[in-house]
Design brief:
Blueprint lengths: L8 E6 L3 E7 L10 E19 L5 E6 L4 E5 L6 E4 L2 E3 L6 E16 L1 H8 L10 E3 H5 L1 H13 L3 H17 L6 H12 L6 H8 L3 H12 L3 H15 L4 H4 L1 H7 L5 H12 L3 H6 L8 E2 L1
Antiparallel strand pairs: 1-2, 2-3, 3-8, 3-10, 4-7, 4-8, 5-6, 5-8, 7-9
Helix pairs in contact: 3-4
């Protein structure tokens, strides 16, 4: 992965059917609480390119300056939509993306704290949904952003532009309430192990109150978010299974046992852990669909 003086790094892949270049750079440090990471991409597929998008504890925003992308419900393949620039609310189901030909665009992965502040909407309204960016930001604002990214001289300039856009909008956004932000931080730091009962006791509120507030400002209830965080933690360590074995990995990531671990993988990806690991694409290309 060669690094340029601007801090931009490029990871490339080329095969007979697919090629891609993934461009990364660290976001402005002031975005740290709100943005997990971001990247640019340019790719070509001579046959339909499908990627599995498993749930993760964040909210992705895609800004394309190329053709549209098909988004397919992983559990209900007949449910599909076609999007150019869009934002995907917090999901506890997997989706499959598909395109053929050329793609170029920019992806920002918001933290859950950042997504609420950036969008300033009731997050449960967009949970398990993909929504056109124009419907959330306004067509004019979404169009200006995509146009400016397209017209920028190079990727370094696109990262600078995205930093400015995010800092401005987040600076004007509504912050998450302190109690929900604290409960979310506890769940994230424990990889989903902290119980809802303990959180509500520490906040001196009822479980029902906590669940309602969480649902509105995060998108899903605390139990669902805890399951996603535990699953995401398992994915990070899935390569260690050769050494530790699946059962050790399951218990180490907070599952009751391997059966619990397997059920969650099937629920979130439609695959066993072994099948999921075998689907990982080379060179940071994601998960084959």
């Amino acid at each position: 992965m060669p690094a340029e003086a601007s801090g931009v790094q490029v990871n490339t892949h080329r095969s007979d059917e697919y090629s891609w270049a993934l461009v990364t750079r660290a976001p402005d440090s002031r975005l740290a609480p709100y943005v997990i990471d971001y990247c640019g991409y340019r790719e070509r597929a001579l046959t339909p390119m499908r990627r599995l998008q498993p749930p993760f504890a964040g909210v992705p925003m895609i800004v394309t300056f190329g053709p549209s992308i098909d988004i397919i419900n992983g559990n209900l393949p007949t449910e599909r939509g076609v999007f150019r620039s869009f934002l995907a609310g917090l999901h506890d189901v997997h989706v499959v993306t598909e395109f053929e030909g050329d793609q170029i665009g920019f992806q920002v992965n918001f933290t859950l704290l950042g997504a609420f502040r950036f969008l300033n909407v009731t997050m449960s309204d967009i949970a398990n949904r993909c929504v056109g960016l124009g419907d959330l930001l306004g067509d004019a604002a979404a169009g200006r952003l995509a146009g400016a990214l397209h017209d920028a001289n190079d990727w370094a300039a696109r990262f600078d532009l995205m930093d400015r856009f995010l800092l401005d909008r987040l600076g004007r956004g509504r912050p998450m309430s302190p109690d929900v932000a604290w409960a979310l931080k506890c769940l994230e730091e424990s990889h989903g192990a902290r119980s809802i009962g303990a959180l509500s006791r520490d906040l001196a509120c009822s479980r029902r109150t906590l669940i309602q507030r969480f649902h509105a400002q995060v998108g899903l209830n605390p139990k669902a978010v805890a399951g996603i965080l535990r699953f995401a933690h398992a994915i990070k360590h899935i390569h260690a299974a050769d050494e530790e074995g699946w059962a050790d990995l399951a218990v180490g990531c907070g599952y009751y046992d391997q059966a619990h671990f397997n059920r969650d993988f099937r629920r979130y990806t439609g695959r066993t852990p072994r099948e999921f690991r075998a689907s990982l694409l080379p060179d940071g290309g994601g998960v084959g669909g």
